[in-house]
Amino acid sequence: MKAQRPNDNERACGTCSLCCKLMEVETLSKPAGRWCGHCVPSKGCSIHATRPDECRGFYCGWLRIPELGEEWKPQQAKFLLFLSDDSQRLNAVVDPSAPDAWRRQPFYGQFKTWARQSVNGGPNVQIWIRRRCVAILPDRDVELGVVPEGDGIYFGMAKTPAGPKFIARVIPATPQEGGKD
């Protein structure tokens, strides 16, 4: 998977504004999973010229990965993709109104392909439905449940006599020094 800058690709958001629902925007005190008050669904942002940097700098995977077909456009897929800042995690943030959208083909098959590629340095695949996370591993999917704010997710591999065992688990946030346990 090779992500490009959006301008290298001729795609545009058009009528899609699912990021305005699914993503948190701290500057606007907009929680994830709720439509932004400035969004006019299927039309776009009513404050586009003065939108916050968080919005200005966000480009979903469909805009950045030219190999993804039209079916991956968030308004059609009912989820959006983005790579973590360090490119180690591929996140699919699913519209809560269609929580199983990621399981449909061709999406699920491609998530499994990407999970297999993670063994050779590709990003690990995480599916998010609100705060609930499913880790897609090469050999299985792991339901991690609701991941508390600040907690991390560990992906790894253990060598066993039967072959590699892929692992995903939640790593609790380290309590702040002097904080309550």
Main sheet: strands, sense, barrel: 5 strands, mixed
- The secondary-structure class comes to alpha+beta
**DSSP strand tally:** 9
- Tell me, briefly, the overall form: globular
Number of H/I helices? 5
Tally of structural domains: 1
Query: What is the rounded distance between the termini?
Result: 41 Å
Low-confidence stretches: none
Write a concise keyword list for the protein shown above:
alpha+beta, 181 residues, five-stranded mixed sheet
What is the gist of this entry?
The protein is α+β, with helices and mostly antiparallel strands.
Describe this entry's structure for a reader.
- The protein is α+β, with helices and mostly antiparallel strands and 181 residues long.
- The protein has one domain (6-171).
- The protein is 15% helix and 28% strand.
- The protein has helices at 19-22, 53-56, 61-64, 74-77, 107-118, and strands at residues 39-40, 44-45, 79-83, 89-94, 124-129, 132-136, 141-146, 152-160, 163-171.
- The strands form three sheets. It has a five-stranded mixed beta sheet. It has a two-stranded antiparallel ribbon with strand order 1-2.
- The longest helix has 12 residues, at 107-118.
- The model has no long low-confidence stretch (mean pLDDT 90).
